[in-house]
Amino acid sequence: MNPHQKQVDLAKAYRLLNHGPTVLVSARHEGVDNVMAAAWCCALDFSPPKLTVVLDKATRTRELIERSGRFVIQIPTAAQLQLTNQVGNHSLKDAPDKLAKAGVELFNIPGHDLPFVQGCSAWLACELIAEPHNQQAYDLFIGEVVGAWADDRVFRDGHWHFEDADPAWCSLHHVAGGHFYAIGDALKAE
Amino acid sequence: MNPHQKQVDLAKAYRLLNHGPTVLVSARHEGVDNVMAAAWCCALDFSPPKLTVVLDKATRTRELIERSGRFVIQIPTAAQLQLTNQVGNHSLKDAPDKLAKAGVELFNIPGHDLPFVQGCSAWLACELIAEPHNQQAYDLFIGEVVGAWADDRVFRDGHWHFEDADPAWCSLHHVAGGHFYAIGDALKAE
Hints:
Two copies of one chain form a homodimer. By secondary structure, chain A is α+β, with helices and mostly antiparallel strands.
């Protein structure tokens, strides 16, 4: 157990996603765990917190989510750049050792039968809100956030602290191919 | 006309949104133009390019989109921090001079009966794909991107060049209240 992992008030869970980071999506069904990267994940509502994520029909993670009805959205760090790119480029269908090869280590959170990825800055446990038309026509999945946690070295008191943290904690923002940007300077509007 | 505004290949339009910036949403109906800020906007498909955006029922921009069936998603810059925060915090319903007060200047693009915001780094002209259930239940709107443009001082050859551009061109990533982050360093995975 990472002693820095602290629960986040569900009313502030949207803040974990609001700045548009690329995420890791993980799921479990009948003993199979998988993790994929997704740039197309977005907050959808404040209370109860909801989010959307686009999951291609070719992905194994989508199958696990459709069967189990739950998933985790977690926010990888700049230190996890290679891991994030690798789980985004390889499928468990072709590479059964995908997670080990990418260096993914999973952990459990009591009360949630889900695989959480170690080393991330934040984790959102979600229950699928079934919307078959969206899923089939647009590959668009809606989740209700039922648990949220963050590492207090970079998110605490309901706010990100990228500006005070080691740059290795920066969120990743994917553009295309292996090209990403890290999150940058804090700006305050009047 | 800004001579740096160049058309973006629709196949690469998703790259304008992929890194998760906060956007400005604009729309026009029967002589009324409006602009609002939205952090909850996300790419949905590559070809034809589609996107999602969450529009609260209280917003005037949503009404204009529901009536006209079209809208613009544009990407504001760090230089537009105050403008972005202002159009996100005030409604045209209460402040008829909202756009002037926030310093918003609009321009036209031939062939598109839409208000585009000057000074942004990129613009996506969208046609609403009507999905009444999503709109009513989740405030979730889907648009098909029918035209895309970017300022070649920060996006050219299908790629963002934040690392070479003046920091004033950085995209904005909203967290909460007046708190934003600018996009940061480029990172390349192997």
